[in-house]
Automatic annotation (TrEMBL):
<dbReference type="Pfam" id="PF00069">
    <property type="entry name" value="Pkinase"/>
</dbReference>
<feature type="domain" description="Protein kinase">
    <location>
        <begin position="153"/>
        <end position="437"/>
    </location>
</feature>
<feature type="binding site">
    <location>
        <position position="190"/>
    </location>
    <ligand>
        <name>ATP</name>
    </ligand>
</feature>
<dbReference type="InterPro" id="IPR000719">
    <property type="entry name" value="Prot_kinase_dom"/>
</dbReference>
<dbReference type="GO" id="GO:0005524">
    <property type="term" value="F:ATP binding"/>
</dbReference>
<dbReference type="GO" id="GO:0004674">
    <property type="term" value="F:protein serine/threonine kinase activity"/>
</dbReference>
<dbReference type="InterPro" id="IPR055900">
    <property type="entry name" value="DUF7477"/>
</dbReference>
<keyword id="KW-0547">Nucleotide-binding</keyword>
<dbReference type="InterPro" id="IPR017441">
    <property type="entry name" value="Protein_kinase_ATP_BS"/>
</dbReference>
<protein>
    <recommendedName>
        <fullName>non-specific serine/threonine protein kinase</fullName>
        <ecNumber>2.7.11.1</ecNumber>
    </recommendedName>
</protein>
<dbReference type="Pfam" id="PF24289">
    <property type="entry name" value="DUF7477"/>
</dbReference>
<keyword id="KW-0808">Transferase</keyword>
<keyword id="KW-0067">ATP-binding</keyword>
<dbReference type="InterPro" id="IPR050235">
    <property type="entry name" value="CK1_Ser-Thr_kinase"/>
</dbReference>
<keyword id="KW-0418">Kinase</keyword>
<dbReference type="InterPro" id="IPR008271">
    <property type="entry name" value="Ser/Thr_kinase_AS"/>
</dbReference>
Length: 714
């Protein structure tokens, strides 16, 4: 059965003038009382996936000749590879080894390791594994170059330097009369050290990509490659200015027609790249170059720098790569990266198109709302801002096609095949009817017969989007998770003050109930008690200290383990510890950010996440050994990771822990070691505590398994 989502929001297109630009993106959006989702019954596989008036002309571009991917743009807009992801703006690090009673576990004390989120160049070890930043080689660049069967080239002027190495003009010593191709008198020589800081000594990963893609439409040709001395060397076509250079030469503002032409040709290039099974991974103005000035290709667009390219389609099976999320890995450029890239999700075709959307808006408007963030938390803040900026706000100064494009690409599923033809057709009315007069050549769209009449696009109803993957209004709500099981007794209390907590707990114990989960909202408590926990004894502490170390260690010595925990905005915490659990060792961590790096380390040591909570911006994560889980994954989002949760459900995972701050929501999903009867699971998001919905669920033998209060989307 498909998931059901009660959604009562209508997306409206905004006018492109400033007067109609919304002051705050929350305006003109409806808030809803609740939103629930249900896991599908079948989980055997993954779901299948004219000319505008008053448009000024752009005169010929006159800027210095440059070459791909080096020395372009401001220092803060380089590329970051293998950096900590946006949610890891500050990484908490244990101050020492854990301590615990009777070998029962380590306590990771809260500490902070500052990791700056910078737009720097680092390199791959392979398509999947990232290495450290490239260490500059002290060896001199050879004055003459010959690799493989190439002609001899004499080193000329330097074009630029980046994290991948250095690029020079190579002038052919003998022969050579053309401007492009293997017979060109001048080529671009890209030098990369044979030994990197990370110890990688093989050919650059980019070589593998070019071997698969050389000759692909819109990519520069690689004529020769090889090693000489201490360097790997690529011999490539010389190209002209980047779109960043062009943008600067036009006072940092390009015309609608020029940006529309860029959109059409860029989509065509990405379509051909995607057809080959790759995604680029770093789409931005600096990586789009024009041909050399004074040549027939001076208005032709090229996409360069394949150092971050990866496969979206498995080379052997031809199937889409599997979905995953690793929040501690970031690949790309912070300003233009898709939100999925920020969140550490596996790259797919939608990410290239989302980055292109940001690139187009930047070229048209001259600025993006998330520019200006600096410091160690930059990536976190940029991603948060991207997800809090709806298309009508981001594109309020742009013609309608750009907003439509952004809405379409940010609404794509992970494995969805883009409708490139439809995307291109959005810009038909923004482009002149005579191809030779266009500021940018649009050969790609013409060659593959993609250009279609605007009327056809209207018939397909561009404005009517399918079920949304990401779009929505950020909200703070209750998130409750329900499991189907045999009938049992369950009780809930909410809006409980500190002074009333003991009364409710004791009454539950008299009735044979134990606390199964707790949560907090506005410094008040919610308690779920039921008869199906299997606990034999239970203690709890309400403390002004967030996870009181002394009390927890004291209970560990008495063979109690943490089974539920909740934190309040004021920093206080409710910790519940129980006997009768299978755990043999336990550890917990307090962190200013979601500590995925620590969680991943503990996973490798045989621990599993068994409880989570937050207090203000702090996270508290409890991990235990001997849990009965074979594997765990995390879903972390600034809104609500609906698609990710459904994909995990389809592969046999179930939500076992939830927690949320005012900014982010985290879900731990677990796969059991022993496959028993399939457990159906649903999630519910409500503005108020879901008391009426809980009773309805009970009538269907569905019981609360986890609950928290924090960031979602309505």
């Amino acid at each position: 059965m498909p998931r059901a989502t009660k959604l009562n929001r209508k997306t409206e297109m905004e006018n492109s003038n400033l007067a109609n630009c919304p002051r705050e993106w929350m305006e003109d959006r409806r808030r809803f009382s609740f939103l629930w989702e249900r896991m599908p019954d079948l989980r055997s596989g993954v779901r299948p996936s004219k000319r505008v008036n008053n448009v000024h002309e752009n005169p010929p571009v006159v800027v210095p000749t440059v070459w791909p991917g080096v020395g372009k743009g401001p220092a803060g807009n380089g590329r970051g590879r293998g950096l900590r992801a946006m949610n890891q703006g500050k990484i908490s690090k244990p101050l020492g080894a854990g301590v615990g009673g009777r070998g029962r576990g380590g306590l990771d004390l809260p500490g902070r390791q500052v990791v700056a989120i910078q737009d720097e160049l680092v390199v791959h070890k392979s398509a999947e594994k990232l290495a450290a930043e490239e260490e500059p080689s002290s060896s001199p660049i050879p004055e003459r170059v010959q690799v493989g069967n190439s002609p001899v080239y004499k080193l000329d002027r330097k074009l630029g330097k980046g994290g991948f190495g250095q690029v020079f003009v190579g002038r052919r010593v003998t022969g050579g009369t053309g401007r492009n191709g293997s017979d060109a008198s001048e080529v671009a020589l890209k030098f990369e050290p044979r030994k990197s800081k990370g110890g990688h000594c093989g050919p650059p990963y980019e070589w593998q990509v070019y071997s698969n893609l050389n000759g692909c439409y819109g990519l520069p040709l690689v004529h020769y490659k090889g090693k000489q001395g201490d360097y790997y060397i690529l011999v490539m076509d010389m190209l002209g200015p980047s779109l960043w250079d062009v943008w600067n030469s036009y006072n940092q503002m390009l015309s609608e027609e020029m940006v529309a032409c860029i959109a059409v040709e860029a989509i065509s290039i990405l379509e051909q790249l995607h057809y080959k099974g790759f995604v680029h991974g770093d789409v931005k103005p600096e990586n789009f170059l024009l041909g050399q000035p004074g040549t027939p290709n001076e208005k032709k667009l090229y996409l360069v720098d394949l150092g971050l390219a990866s496969r979206w389609k498995d080379a052997s099976s031809g199937r889409h790569v599997d979905y995953d999320q690793k929040p501690d890995i970031f690949r790309g450029t912070v300003r233009y990266a898709s939100v999925h890239t920020h969140l550490g999700r596996t790259g797919s075709r939608r990410d290239d198109l989302e980055s292109l959307a940001y690139t187009l808006v930047f070229l048209l408007r001259g600025k993006l709302p998330w520019q200006g963030y600096v410091g160690e938390n930059k990536g976190f803040l940029v991603c948060k801002k991207k997800m809090a900026t709806p298309p009508e706000t981001l594109c309020c100064l742009c013609p309608p096609p750009f907003q439509q494009f952004l809405e379409m690409v940010t609404n794509m599923r992970f494995d969805e095949e883009p409708n490139y033809s439809k995307l291109i057709s959005l810009f038909d009315d923004s482009i002149g009817s005579i191809p030779t007069l266009r500021p940018i050549r649009t050969d790609g769209a013409i060659k593959v017969g993609q250009k279609r009449g605007r009327s056809l696009v209207e018939l397909e109803d561009v404005g009517q989007l399918k079920k949304k993957v990401r779009l929505g209004t950020p909200a703070t709500q209750w998130i409750s998770v329900y499991n189907s099981r045999s009938a049992m007794k369950q009780r809930y209390h909410y809006n409980v003050m500190d002074s009333r907590l003991h009364q409710h707990v004791e009454k539950g114990r008299e009735d044979g109930l134990y606390i199964s989960c707790v949560a907090s909202s506005v410094n008040l408590w919610a308690i779920i008690m039921d008869a199906g926990t299997g606990f034999t004894s239970q203690v709890y502490e309400l403390s002004p200290i967030f996870l009181n170390k002394e009390w927890i260690m004291e209970q560990w010595d008495k063979n109690y383990y943490i089974t539920s925990v909740a934190g309040a905005i004021n920093g206080s915490a409710l910790v519940v510890m129980s006997q009768g659990v299978p755990y043999t060792q336990q550890s917990y961590k307090v962190s200013d950010v979601f500590p995925f790096k620590w969680i991943n380390k503990k996973w490798k040591e045989g621990f599993s996440v068994t409880s989570m909570t937050t207090a203000g911006v702090k996270w508290g994560i409890v991990m235990s050994r001997n849990t009965g889980y074979a594997n765990q994954v995390v879903e972390l989002d600034f809104l609500y990771p609906s698609e990710g949760i459904h994909r995990r459900w389809e592969t046999g995972y179930r939500i076992t822990s939830t927690a949320a701050t005012a900014d982010q929501a985290a879900f731990i999903l677990s796969a059991p070691k022993k496959r028993s009867a399939d457990v159906a699971q649903e999630t519910l998001r409500t503005s108020a505590f879901p008391c009426n919905h809980v009773k309805e669920k009970w009538s269907k033998n569905q019981y609360i398994a986890s609950i928290c209060y924090g960031r979602t989307v309505s």
